[in-house]
Specification:
Elements lengths: L1 H15 L10 H13 L11 E5 L7 H7 L4 E6 L2 H13 L5 E5 L2 H4 L8 E7 L4 H8 L3 E11 L13 E10 L5 E9 L11 H6 L4
Parallel strand pairs: 1-2, 1-4, 2-3, 4-5
Antiparallel strand pairs: 5-7, 6-7
Helix pairs in contact: 2-3
The chain binds S-adenosyl-L-homocysteine (SAH).
């Protein structure tokens, strides 16, 4: 596992020299702000044998560190940027990770396909404001599933009920560099109306409340 993190770090540094994957360039800072931060989610839900979607995974956060630490996860990494998805595939191959699907697509379209209501856990960091994220993520969760939204502010409201969800607990944690972060959990209770998610332009123009 440590070697896998070392290899991931070197692939990230190498790729970051030619494309913009992360603004953080110091290896130690990457370990804390990306790896440690991602792994904190292990304290918010039981990931063992779960079907997990990392929505807007970018360079793989939080999805890949979670998979390295908990190999029984069936992981899907979704991102709208093709180059990032190519990088994710390269890392998954190089680390020998099994059961990782790297999907190039937009969540608002992906949620109207076969993946709708198929995940136990959706994770997202740095993707969209909470109301917008709920519209993208809740349709992808099975009833009984949970959205783990890594946010810097804790007390945002969102259209939980309209989308078949309910607000769960907040988790606040401290990274080893002293930064405080939090995770907002949203529970999926009932099936989501098929009209959601709407096209992105509408989601942005008229957020649900
Ligand atoms: N989760 C990563 C990346 C955050 S940047 C991290 O925390 O480091 C946000 C990423 O979400 C970008 O890579 C962008 O391409 C992707 N993204 C934004 N909206 C999306 C959508 N609707 N569907 C799929 N990917 C999306």
């Amino acid at each position: 596992m440590d070697e896998q993190f070392d290899l991931y770090l070197s692939l990230l540094l190498e790729a970051n020299a030619v494309m913009n994957l992360t603004a953080i360039r110091e290896p130690e800072e990457i370990r804390v702000r990306h790896f440690e931060d991602s792994l904190k989610l292990l304290g918010c839900a039981d990931f063992r044998n779960r079907r997990v979607l990392d929505l807007g995974s970018g360079a793989g956060f939080p999805g890949l560190p979670l998979k390295i630490a908990e190999p029984s996860i069936a992981l899907t990494l979704l991102d709208g940027t093709g180059k990032k998805v190519e990088f994710l595939r390269r890392v998954a191959d190089a680390l020998g990770l099994r059961d990782v699907a790297c999907v190039h697509g937009r969540a608002e379209e992906y949620a109207h396909g076969p993946a709708r209501e198929s995940f136990d856990i959706v994770t997202a960091r740095g993707v969209a404001s909470l109301p917008l994220l709920c519209e993208l993520a809740l349709p992808l969760l099975k009833p009984g599933g949970v959205l783990l939204a890594m946010k810097s502010t804790a007390f945002e409201s969102a259209p939980y009920r309209l989308l078949g969800g309910e607000r769960g607990e907040d988790y606040i944690y401290e990274l080893s560099d002293g930064t405080l972060h939090n995770v907002i959990t949203v529970l999926k209770i009932t099936f989501t109306n098929k009209i959601y998610p709407r096209p992105w332009a509408q989601i942005k123009r008229k957020p649900l409340v």
